[in-house]
Amino acid sequence: MFRILFLLPIVLCVAWYLFLKHNRVPIKQGKNGFVYILVASALVLGFFLLMIKVTQH
Question: How far apart are CA 25 and CA 28, in angstroms?
């Protein structure tokens, strides 16, 4: 599962892009959504990396 975690931001960004297009919102206006997605994905990845380091002896 950890190996496919890199797909999380890609899938979420594509979903956000499709949401913006469906609601006819300009990409410039929805730019913050992409930033939030990338930051949240980085936090999730960092948490899992920390848990791997903590649990390895």
Answer: 8
DSSP per residue, 16-57:
HHHHHHHTT--TTTTHHHHHHHHHHHHHHHHHHHHHHHHH--
Burial 21-45 (b: 16+ CB within 10 A, else e): eeeeeeeeeeeebbeebeeebeeee
Average confidence (pLDDT) per 10 residues, the chain, 57 residues: 83 97 96 96 92 88
